[in-house]
Task: inverse folding
């Protein structure tokens, strides 16, 4: 399976405004018997590699030499593409179209991650085999901040029946996590409105055309994002707790 990570934003909501890259903000991780701090994109890529995804592309701003240099040094096999203008999440995805080579792919944002993504290893492996597309969702109290998914009422298989980007009147309290397993046709459905392309709109068009997406619900505590300055302390706390838990599972002890 291939993965595309988008990390081309300036991080204005993170309070960084391009001075420091938000994907390089440190979070906690547990590796080789030690509790460590690493950039969130490093932790995300390491988690993807652990579940068997090693063919990874990252979309960056062309002026972002900091992340370029870091990735080329720590992840030399990564393929780097550039979003030449900031024209939306969908536009960033389009920048790596040639990387997908007509295959389904996992898409993630470089400023967030599902902490326990290894729990979904078999789900993703199965998706790669049967071609069933996935949208990761979580219940939230403030869905206006997110892309929102409407789900079917079936208990065993929650199909996504509609998605909408940051609605004024949310049709549900299921927010889209920035983690998706998408069909290659999604590229043809990405379109521009007022100079920007939103991935949520492309997914909505895919659903309207008959493409089916399964919702994979994750606990809201399992998702972290450094996209907003006021959330960073919470991200540090969450990644610390998760890393300590992993250290116990690996036979280590809390520092």
Result:
């Amino acid at each position: 399976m291939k993965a595309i990570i988008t990390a081309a934003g300036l991080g204005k909501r993170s309070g960084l405004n391009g001075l420091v890259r938000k994907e390089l903000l440190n979070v906690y991780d547990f590796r080789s018997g030690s509790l460590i701090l690493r950039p969130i994109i490093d932790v995300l890529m390491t988690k993807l590699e652990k579940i068997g995804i090693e063919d990874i592309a990252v979309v960056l701003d062309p002026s972002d030499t900091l992340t370029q240099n870091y990735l080329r040094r720590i992840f030399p096999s990564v393929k780097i593409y550039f979003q030449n203008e900031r024209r939306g999440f969908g536009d960033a995805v389009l920048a790596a179209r040639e990387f997908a080579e007509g295959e389904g792919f996992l898409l993630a944002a470089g400023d967030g991650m599902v902490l326990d993504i290894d729990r979904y290893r078999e789900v993703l492996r199965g998706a790669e085999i049967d071609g069933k597309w996935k949208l990761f969702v979580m219940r939230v109290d403030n869905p206006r901040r997110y892309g929102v998914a409407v789900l079917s009422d079936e208990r065993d298989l929650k199909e996504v029946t509609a998605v909408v980007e940051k609605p004024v009147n949310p049709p549900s309290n299921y927010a889209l996590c920035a983690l998706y397993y998408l069909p290659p046709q999604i590229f043809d459905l990405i379109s521009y409105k007022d100079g920007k392309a939103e991935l949520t709109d492309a997914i909505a068009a895919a659903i309207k055309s008959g493409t089916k997406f399964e919702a994979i619900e994750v606990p809201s505590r399992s998702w972290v994002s450094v996209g907003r300055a006021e959330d960073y302390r919470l991200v540090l706390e969450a990644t610390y707790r998760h890393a300590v838990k992993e250290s116990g599972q690996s036979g280590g002890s809390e520092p």
